[in-house]
């Protein structure tokens, strides 16, 4: 498999091209400097050609070093971006887990509320049919609004009964006070009668004597 098939990043393809070109230039320079291959060539021409090829090779190496440095910087930036993205993913994952936990908690709370034995269910309210006869404006109300209306009706009725009880209690207290006053008056009258009888008796004996 060729290296170009392994490396697919567009930013690294120029580096591969420069590397291949540099390798080719090195091969040319080595072939030019091979004494066995250039035994019949003019040494002066060979030196000039080698110098030219060497300068070109140095230029390619400088270019390759620059591309390699840029690639290293890009790798560092990619690693930094990857680390930041991973931290963000971890944060979002933790937040999602917290939401799942909160969802389960709220689901449990809702189930507990739905199964809770509410006190209002045991209130001695009048039957729905009787209530709707008294208040036909609630015939289109839903269950929640109807229950609130029935509780308010029961509260109002109990307030009326309490007011009536207080009035009866006041009347009772007034009657008790009036009875006590009459008892006191009767007791005083008895005492007056006893004194009157005593005086009459004494006067009777004085007249007889």
TrEMBL record:
Its main location: nucleus. One of its GO terms (molecular function) is mRNA binding. Pfam families: FmiP_Thoc5. One of its GO terms (biological process) is mRNA export from nucleus. InterPro entries: THO_Thoc5. Keywords: Coiled coil, Nucleus. One of its GO terms (cellular component) is THO complex part of transcription export complex. Residues 151-192 form a coiled coil. It comes from the Eukaryota. Transmembrane segments: none annotated. It is found in: Nucleus. Belongs to the THOC5 family. This is Fms interacting protein. The lineage of its organism: Eukaryota, Fungi, Dikarya, Ascomycota, Pezizomycotina.
